[in-house]
Amino acid sequence: xxxxxxxxxxxxxxxxxxxxxxxxxxxxxxxxxxxxxxxxxxxxxxxxxxxxxxxxxxxxxxxxxxxxxxxxxxxxxxxxxxxxxxxxxxxxxxxxxxxxxxxxxxxxxxxxxxxxxxxxxxxxxxxxxxxxxxxxxxxxxxxxxxxxxxxxxxxxxxxxxxxxxxxxxxxxx
Length: 173
Prior knowledge:
Layout: H1 8-18, H2 28-31, E1 35-38, E2 41-43, H3 54-62, E3 69-77, E4 81-90, E5 93-100, H4 108-129, E6 140-145, E7 150-154, H5 156-163
Parallel strand pairs: 5-6
Antiparallel strand pairs: 1-2, 2-3, 3-4, 4-5, 6-7
């Protein structure tokens, strides 16, 4: 019997499992479309540049020049400037998370734990936006660059809708 070809999500899971990493949360419609684009790079769309340059992907969303997609992978440069990048654009939400992982001087277990924790928070956010409609002019955007330790959130209308959602106990702060 000929084995069934491995899907993109199977390949992603295999690469991340082997490295001791969890895969990021992916809505089912996007999960089914994930493809391996190159070594350590998976997405639902053609990528015109590498994942380490997250600012280019953010620019597309701000200009409203992209459809829903997911992209995840490992990229970087030099000896220690490497990260797991996870980008998700779906409905009213755009997430750009880059967590340091895979650099020569990084503790692999600590870095993997930070990747998992970041993905867990993203899963909570994805669940919180379930049922929130996207307005024509606004998306909730989360940008986290672990190398800088800074996170930004934009999109007050969508954020207001999430804060009133009963999902996962989210409350206004």
